[in-house]
Amino acid sequence: MKLGCCYYPEHWPEAIWADDARRMRDMGLSLVRIGEFAWSRIEPEPGRYDWGWLDRAIETLAGAGLKVILGTPTATPPKWLVERMPDMVAIDASGRPRGFGSRRHYCFSHEGYRAECRRIVTALAERYGRHPAIAMWQTDNEYGCHDTVLSFSDAAACAFRGWLAARYGTPQALNAAWGNVFWSMEYRSFAEVDPPHRTVTEANPAHWLDYRRFASDQVARFNREQVEILRALSPGVDITHNFMGFFAEFDHHAVGRDIDLATWDSYPLGFLEQFWFAKEEKAAYLRQGHPDIAAFHHDLYRGCSGGRWGVMEQQPGPVNWARFNPAPLPGMVALWTLEACAHGAELTSYFRWRQAPFAQEQMHAGLLRPDSSEAEATPEVRTAAAVLADIGPQTTARAPVALVFAYEAAWAIGIQPQGASFRYLELAFEAYSALRQRGLDIDIVAPDADLAAYRMVVVPSLPIIPDGFAEKLAALACPVLLGPRSGSKTESFRIPEGLAPGALRDAIPLTVTRVESLREGIAEPGDGFAVTRWREDVASDLAPELTDAAGRGVVWRHGHIRYCAVWPDRALLRLLVARMAAEAGLDLIDLPEGIRLRRSASHAFTFNYAAQPVFVPHLGETLAPASWHIAPR
Ligand code: GAL
Question: Looking at residues 583-611, what average pLDDT do you find?
Fold first, then answer.
């Protein structure tokens, strides 16, 4: 795994570039990402390119032996461009333009902006496409960041109508699929259909689901246009995009298919603070991040792009964007780096080289302070570099467990949650965490993945069952767990004929006759677990495998397939993982709180995420906080 950093030469006097480059190399870095926000410096006036500074920046970095990841600057269109076509900005759900003055102020559907993006990417690729220092391209930056996947502009509305016409052929077919007879929502032509915002109460969920599918397709198409240009003008150079954490607003599997490797931006402390974690967990892991946050995304993104992946932005200290922004415990930056390596990353690049003394991110730490002195993370980068050199290149073996993750599942559940605390991402994360706490390695895969070689398959929830999926599960021999709401909707967001779990009924003969959601704080006891948030009534000739204390069925089993009809709490997940592992002949390890284990093909990595020393039985030794143990397998 190579180490790198995110660098903005345009932020610093040219006189210090060479010293920066030398210091990067001396620290053990070999990759530098630049350029992704530099449009106003690359093209200060329409059609007038200023390549001089970028030529010199690339030469300076290359001169120090560094390779460059060059970003296309399309996340930050310059003011002159917005002035020229003011309608290129996205429109939010309440109808307000998302104006100039920060970033990502564009609508994925705007044809004029897309043409401008093709132009700037072509210019950049013509200039640097065959430059020997360019190791990789990054398209744009964090598609969807700052809530920018959905736009309700005229451009988006118009593109949506075309998308619907291609999908349905006739307005009658659309009306039938969506059930528009309900509330007299029928359309006579595609031209009559608007995006599903600004309705009096909720819009038709089928309308929303198609709008999300459409918006996701727009992101993929926007990315693909850049990829095609880069492939033509920069043959053989890898292309990536940097994805985000806990973010499912577009289909990353679709974008991942068009690029060479998926990268993602890892901010474990920011994510712990911003997402659903309990107060006690936020306190216990304040300066380390929850032990599964980074790992979950490593495994998710490894599954998005054929196995090749990396970390494009690694948190090096306090960030600026969470509600509260603690500093990592000493050791954590090195630990996060090594965890990425353990999951098979090709690179980990720190965000950013030097903290900016100006503008929006001046409170965001870097490897250097604004005065160029070394910040706290820097010695840890050297440590990580030394460990990496010591253990040598790592490769990833197929994990024994597959966790099936679907972006469409996140949309379907988010559109009609039915219970405010039913969060798909949280459910998938909890299932992942339950597996990882028992020392299992996990591949997170798309529903269309080949599952045949896995020894256990977990589907946290999959409301819409793709063609062939039920048959694929039925044909497996290993234990399979299906979570609540699986098979509960059709492609058109309807309740399936014969009720849920729809297409899965051949795999497990049961019928969900009713669902209910439970407010926070309600916990209905079972034997060692509790039912919270969600439960389903199930009719079946099968006797339940597990019931709650009142005798209501919780889990059903038919051969190798289980169906869990409730939101599984941690204890229930633990119980199910234990049963399935026993059936699969997989050994489990009881990892103490805060300890995690991940194996590469050649090494076993044990990490202590706890804020205190922990005795680790499988090692027979105590690990200090934020420390690791790496041994050949
Ligand atoms: C990422 C983004 C970077 C920077 C960073 C700060 O979301 O890609 O440009 O803003 O966050 O943590």
Answer: 98
Q: What share of the chain is helix, strand, coil (3-state, %, to 5)?
A: 35, 20, 45
Calpha distance 66→58 (Å, rounded): 9
Q: Are 85 and 112 in contact (CB under 8 A)?
A: yes
Residue count of the chain, please give it.
633
Return the pLDDT at 438.
Answer: 98
- Nearest ligand 1 atom, CA 142: 8
pLDDT in tens, 510-525: 999 999 999 999 999 9
C-alpha 366 – ligand 1 centre gap (Å): 12
- In this structure, are residues 128 and 70 in contact, taking their beta carbons and an 8 Å threshold? yes
pLDDT of residue 378: 98
When the pLDDT of each residue in the chain is averaged and rounded to a whole number, the result is 98
d(CA 32, CA 4): 5
Point out the catalytic residue in the list 249, 313, 339, 430: 313
Domain extent listing, the chain: 157-206, 401-584, 595-632
Decide whether any atom of ligand 1 lies within 6 Å of the 319 Cβ: yes
**Tokens coding 545:** 């495998």
Nearest to 329 by CA among 623, 620, 621, 26: 623
Q: pLDDT for 208-243, tens place per residue?
A: 999 999 999 999 999 999 999 999 999 999 999 999
Q: Is 8 in the pocket of ligand 1 (CB under 6 A)?
A: no
pLDDT digits (tens, 9 = 90+) for 428-439: 999 999 999 999
For residue 392, give every residue at least 6 positions away whose Cβ sits within 8 Å of its Cβ, in sequence order, or none.
Answer: 602
Distance, CA of 631 to chain centre: 29
CATH of the structural domain 401-584, one choice from 3.40.50.880, 1.10.3470.10, 3.30.310.50, 3.90.550.10: 3.40.50.880
Q: Which residue has the tokens 């609540």?
A: 484
364 CB under 6 A from ligand 1? Answer: yes
Q: Which helix (H) or strand (E) holds 346?
A: none
Q: DSSP state, 489? A: B
Residue type, 101: G
Amino acid 275: pLDDT: 98
Output the CA 6–ligand 1 centroid distance in Å.
10
pLDDT digits (tens, 9 = 90+) for 347-392: 999 999 999 999 999 999 999 999 999 999 999 999 999 999 999 9
Could you tell me if the CB of 143 is within 6 A of ligand 1? no
Whether residue 426 lies in the annotated active site: no
Nearest residue (by CA) to ligand 1, atom 10, is 361
Query: Pick the catalytic residue: 142, 225, 249, 536?
Result: 142
Q: Which tens digit of pLDDT belongs to each residue from 10-19?
A: 999 999 999 9
491 and 176 Cβ atoms separated by less than 8 Å: no
Does ligand 1 come within 6 angstroms of the Cβ of 313? yes
Concerning whether 142 is annotated as a catalytic residue, the answer is yes
Q: What's the angle, vertex CA 342, arms to CA 339 and CA 344, rounded to 5?
A: 115
Instruction: Specify the pTM.
Output: 0.98
- Going by alpha carbons, the residue nearest to atom 2 of ligand 1 is 142
Specify the pLDDT at position 204: 98
- Using the mean position of ligand 1's atoms as its centre, give its distance from the Cα of residue 11 in Å: 16
**11, 138, 145, best to mutate for ligand 1 pocket (most atoms within 8 Å of CB):** 145
Shortest-distance atom of ligand 1 to CA 145: 7
Model pLDDT, residue 582: 98
Q: Is the CB of 75 under 6 A from ligand 1?
A: no
Split at pLDDT 50, 70, 90, the class of 248 is very high
